[in-house]
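Exam revision sheet. Question 4 asks you to relate a sequence to its structure. Input first:
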Amino acid sequence: MQYQVRAKKHLGQHFLKDEEIAKNIVNALVQVSNLPLIEIGPGTGVLTKHLIEKENFVAIDIDTESVEFLKKIYPQHATKILYGDFLEMNLTDFFSDKFAIIGNFPYNISSQIMFKVLDYRHKIEAIVGMFQKEVAERMAEKPGSKTYGILSVLLQAFYDIEYLFTVEPSAFTPPPKVKSAVIRLTRNNTKQLACDEKLFKAIVKSTFNQRRKMVRNGVKSFIKDEAVMSHKFFTMRPEQLSVNQFVELTQIIEKQR
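Answer key, structure tokens:
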């Protein structure tokens, strides 16, 4: 069956066509997880073909053309191929226990996908995904780098992140203008942060919104007792703080509140 691919420009989607890369992405997940699996944005099914036989598997796409195409290719598995907006779905409707996620994620919403992963971090044990290279680097980066930021801290609080490999534009149809990369996230042992998690998230976002300034500038609105500003954290820049140091910073601010 011939499929005329339409570029999902509104979603930032580019279809992977390199079979070897597709196998490497699937293998990267298989190495760490045999859990029920959700594929996000299956497109033409280059990953799906390696996963569709899995008993506990669903593929979700917001593009009706992709969904219709895959249902025709895999009529015996049509119930596993779903139309819908992943960002709006209740993921426990698919699997009540723990599961994993895989996908060539639409670049325009890849950060939103990862924030949703955080909302379900008690359920999602592993993620292997294709991202725009700079976004992948940001998520996997360590403290001290200019690319270390909000997503780095929030994700690394609950996941170990590995940058696996870079993918050239020629591996896609249509080719994107940027390089891509595949990363793997596996759930760490942190069940709950040792601080108010809502405040932690707010502090991380506020400080990185002023990343060129010292931490003290980003947390002014949270401070009631100026005396706490004597701690060394307040004279550092946000990219210098590790996840654990952000937890400590949150604890300091919690106590004075």
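Marking note for examiners. The chain has a mean pLDDT of 93.
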